[in-house]
Amino acid sequence: MTSLTLLSPAKLNLFLHITGRRADGYHQLQTLFQLLDYGDEMTFSTRSDGQITLSPDLPGVAFEQNLIIKAVRKLEAYKTADAGVDIQLHKRLPMGGGIGGGSSNAATTLVALNHLWNCGLTRNQLQTIGLQLGADVPVFINAQTAWAEGVGEALEPIKMQPKWFLVVQPDCHVSTTEIFLHKDLTRDTSAIKVAAFLERGGKNDCEALVRRLYPQVDKALNWLQKFDRNARMTGTGACVFASFESAEKAQQVQALLPSDLPGFVAQGVNQSPLYKLLPPN
């Protein structure tokens, strides 16, 4: 049996502009995906009987609907008949939090099984497969902080200055589908260049709507903005974040969090350790 343990990192959307809507219903957007040095831990152990297992079960998520299993199914066409896998998930990232938990898990699964099953797929091929599972999956396969356009799949790696982030999790689960289908969502923000964002920053076009629909998110942001006026929501929520120049400052604010607002401190990284952790084939 061959075993492999990998970090499945979180991401933040440092901004999220929705610039249009395609005929197929997908949204055109611009965002900057900032990878973090914090996430879920996943262990993959190969089997020789073709069986696929995942533990523990995620409450409310059917086995075949789990993005991890959907990723496994995508690679089954490239494996030998008797290749199976046991997957153990140590979950740290909240579901419905806007920090990429499920998408990151799917990406890590594709990369791990491509290696363990000797599928021979390139990183670009894995990204193409990953896009079928979700718009955020390719950035985790690419494993680099990146400027993104299109539906999130057109990626340009970008090096950001070191920052530490306090990520706060309001007690609610925000449905990405609900937000993207909502009639009040802003969908006509003008496109900007990377230089413009780095100079002036950006906003999250989903934030105002989510704050109105989910008072828990509004409450968390009101609290966090006392320490960082640029604190904002990531993705379609529910998590919100503030940035700091040092881990110590972020941890000082974390220590002040109300008891009903869990959070974690993580450093932004320009490259996740995903491929560095893969042993040679």
Automatic annotation (TrEMBL):
Q: Which InterPro entries match?
A: GHMP_kinase_C_dom (IPR013750), GHMP_kinase_C_sf (IPR036554), GHMP_kinase_N_dom (IPR006204), IspE (IPR004424), Ribosomal_Su5_D2-typ_SF (IPR020568), Ribsml_uS5_D2-typ_fold_subgr (IPR014721)
Claim: Plastid is one of the keywords in the record: no
Annotated active site residues, numbered on this chain, are: K11, D136
GO molecular function (one): 4-(cytidine 5'-diphospho)-2-C-methyl-D-erythritol kinase activity
Q: What is its EC number?
A: 2.7.1.148
Q: Which GO terms describe its biological process?
A: isopentenyl diphosphate biosynthetic process, methylerythritol 4-phosphate pathway; terpenoid biosynthetic process
EC class of this enzyme? transferase
Q: Which parts of the sequence belong to the GHMP kinase C-terminal domain?
A: 197-255
What pathway or pathways are given for this protein in its record? Answer: Isoprenoid biosynthesis; isopentenyl diphosphate biosynthesis via DXP pathway; isopentenyl diphosphate from 1-deoxy-D-xylulose 5-phosphate: step 3/6
Q: Which residues form the GHMP kinase N-terminal domain?
A: 66-141
**Where is ATP annotated to bind?**
P94, M95, G96, G97, G98, I99, G100, G101, G102, S103, S104
What catalytic reaction does the record list? 4-CDP-2-C-methyl-D-erythritol + ATP = 4-CDP-2-C-methyl-D-erythritol 2-phosphate + ADP + H(+)
One Pfam annotation reads: GHMP_kinases_N
Job description of the protein:
Catalyzes the phosphorylation of the position 2 hydroxy group of 4-diphosphocytidyl-2C-methyl-D-erythritol.
Q: Which family would the database say this protein is a member of?
A: Belongs to the GHMP kinase family. IspE subfamily.
Q: Report what the protein is called.
A: 4-diphosphocytidyl-2-C-methyl-D-erythritol kinase
Natural source organism:
Cellvibrio mixtus
